[in-house]
C-alpha cells in the first residue's frame, strides 16, 4: 500500500546530483505483524498501537488489510544510509508503541503460531474485498516489503517491467522469511507467498507491449471481476497508480534492516540496469510466463538454501550462483549509486547467517519452541543482529 510519504518520490523520481547524472530515488514500505508477547499469536491490535504512535511518526505509519498488521514507509531519497536511518527510527518507534499497547511487533512474512485469524480493518474498500472474495483473504497477517524506484515516465516504466521480470525470482528467494504457519514448518521458505497467491490477481508481471497495453489489461481485469480497482493489481512488479515509480513487491518483509537495505540496493540497481539497457536499445528477454511461475514457486520453496530456476535459460542451478550473477549484472549501477561496497558486505552477512527463513529454522532447531523464534524475530525487528545459522 503506497503511503503519502512515498508520494514525495513524485518530486524527485530521477534526480541529477553533483555526484552523477540521473541517480534514482528509492523508497521502502514494510508491513509488520502484531502478536501476543507471551504466545506469539497474531492479535487484532492495530487500533491500540496506532493510538500509541508518537505524533512525529504518525504520517509514516498506516493500517494494513488485517487488524493484526501495521505498515511503515520511508521518505524516498538517494542515500540508502539515510533511508536505513529513517526505517530504524520508524521500527524502533513502532516497536515501542506496540509494547505500550501490550503487544509485540514482528518483521515476519506471516504468523508462525496457530491462532484465530484476526478480522479485516473496518474500511469500505476492504469490506468490498471481503464481500467479493470471501475466504481468499490470507491467514494471520501477510507481510511484505515493497521497494519503489523513480522512473522518468510511464512508457519507460513499462519497458523497465519487461527487463526486470526475469530477475525477480532470485530476489524472491533472498527475501524468504516465513517458513512456519499454524505451529508447523510448512516446508517452504516463504509460506506468505503461497497464501498471497490465493488472490486471483497475484502473478508474475506479464510481457507488456506498451503503457497503453498495461492500462488496457487493468481495465479488462477490473471488468472481469477479479479486481475491484487498480490497487488490486498484485503483479510482482507494477507501476504505482499514484506516483512515477516502479514498485517491486515480491518479497516477505525482511527481519533486519540490513536485509531490507540489501534488497533496496539490488532493486534500485536492477531498475538502473534496465534503464541503461533501454537507453542502449538492448531488448528485454522474452521469458515464458509459466517458466516465471515455476521460478517463483522454487524461490518460495527453497529460498537460497537449494536450487533456483534461471528464467533466462530454464536450467536449474544453485540459488546462490544465480544471485551472484544478478549482482555481477547490476554492479555498474551499484557502483554508480555508491552502493557496491555496502552490498558486498551485506551479502557476506547473508552467507554467514542465512535468510530470514534460515534464521527462524535455526532457532527452532536449537530450542524446539516457536515462542523463541518469535522472540528472535522481535529482537531483529528492533535492530538486533541476525542470528548466525551455522
Automatic annotation (TrEMBL):
Pfam families: GCS2 (PF04107)
GO molecular function: ATP binding; glutamate-cysteine ligase activity
Reactions accelerated catalytically: L-cysteine + L-glutamate + ATP = gamma-L-glutamyl-L-cysteine + ADP + phosphate + H(+)
Annotated SUPFAM superfamilies: Glutamine synthetase/guanido kinase
GO BP annotations listed: modified amino acid biosynthetic process
InterPro entries: GCL_type2/YbdK_subfam, GCS2, Gln_synth/guanido_kin_cat_dom, YbdK
EC code: 6.3.2.2
Keyword annotations: ATP-binding, Ligase, Nucleotide-binding
Sequence segments annotated as region (Disordered): 1-22
UniProt superkingdom: Bacteria
Family membership: Belongs to the glutamate--cysteine ligase type 2 family. YbdK subfamily.
General function of this protein: ATP-dependent carboxylate-amine ligase which exhibits weak glutamate--cysteine ligase activity.
Protein name: Putative glutamate--cysteine ligase 2
Native source organism of the sequence: Micromonospora sagamiensis
Species classification: Bacteria, Bacillati, Actinomycetota, Actinomycetes, Micromonosporales
Amino acid at each position: 500500500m503506497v503511503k503519502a510519504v512515498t508520494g514525495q518520490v513524485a518530486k524527485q523520481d530521477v534526480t541529477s546530483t553533483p555526484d552523477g547524472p540521473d541517480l534514482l530515488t528509492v523508497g521502502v514500505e514494510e508491513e509488520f505483524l502484531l502478536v501476543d508477547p507471551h504466545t506469539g499469536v497474531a492479535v487484532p491490535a492495530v487500533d491500540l498501537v496506532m493510538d500509541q504512535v508518537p505524533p512525529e511518526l504518525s504520517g509514516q505509519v498506516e493500517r494494513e488489510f488485517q487488524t493484526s498488521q501495521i505498515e511503515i514507509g520511508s521518505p524516498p531519497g538517494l542515500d540508502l544510509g539515510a533511508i536505513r536511518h529513517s526505517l530504524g527510527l520508524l521500527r524502533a518507534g513502532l516497536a515501542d508503541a506496540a509494547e505500550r499497547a501490550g503487544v509485540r511487533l514482528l518483521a515476519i512474512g506471516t504468523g508462525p503460531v496457530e491462532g484465530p485469524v484476526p478480522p479485516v480493518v473496518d474500511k469500505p474498500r476492504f469490506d468490498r474485498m471481503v464481500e467479493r472474495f470471501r475466504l481468499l483473504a490470507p491467514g494471520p497477517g501477510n507481510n511484505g516489503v515493497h521497494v519503489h524506484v523513480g522512473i522518468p515516465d510511464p512508457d519507460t516504466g513499462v519497458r523497465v517491467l519487461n527487463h526486470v521480470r526475469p530477475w525477480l525470482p532470485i530476489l524472491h528467494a533472498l527475501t524468504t522469511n516465513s517458513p512456519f504457519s499454524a505451529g508447523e514448518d510448512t516446508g517452504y521458505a516463504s509460506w506468505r507467498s503461497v497464501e498471497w497467491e490465493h488472490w486471483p490477481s497475484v502473478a508474475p508481471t506479464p510481457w507488456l507491449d506498451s503503457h497503453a497495453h498495461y492500462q488496457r489489461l487493468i481495465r479488462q481485469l477490473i471488468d472481469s471481476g477479479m479486481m475491484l480497482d487498480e490497487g488490486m493489481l498484485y503483479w510482482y512488479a507494477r507501476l504505482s497508480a499514484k506516483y512515477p515509480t516502479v514498485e517491486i513487491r515480491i518479497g516477505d518483509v525482511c527481519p533486519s534492516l540490513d536485509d531490507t537495505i540489501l534488497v533496496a540496493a539490488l532493486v534500485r540497481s536492477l531498475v538502473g540496469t534496465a534503464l541503461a539497457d533501454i537507453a542502449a536499445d538492448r531488448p528485454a528477454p522474452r521469458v515464458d510466463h509459466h517458466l516465471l511461475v515455476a521460478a517463483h514457486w522454487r524461490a518460495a520453496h527453497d529460498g537460497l538454501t537449494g536450487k533456483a530456476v534461471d528464467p533466462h535459460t530454464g536450467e536449474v542451478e544453485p540459488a546462490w550462483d544465480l544471485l551472484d550473477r544478478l549482482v555481477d549484472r547490476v554492479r555498474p549501477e551499484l557502483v554508480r549509486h555508491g552502493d557496491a561496497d555496502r552490498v558486498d558486505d551485506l551479502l557476506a552477512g547473508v552467507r554467514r547467517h542465512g535468510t530470514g527463513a534460515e534464521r527462524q529454522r535455526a532457532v527452532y532447531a536449537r530450542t524446539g519452541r516457536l515462542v523463541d523464534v518469535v522472540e528472535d524475530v522481535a529482537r531483529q525487528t528492533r535492530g538486533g543482529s541476525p542470528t548466525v545459522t551455522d
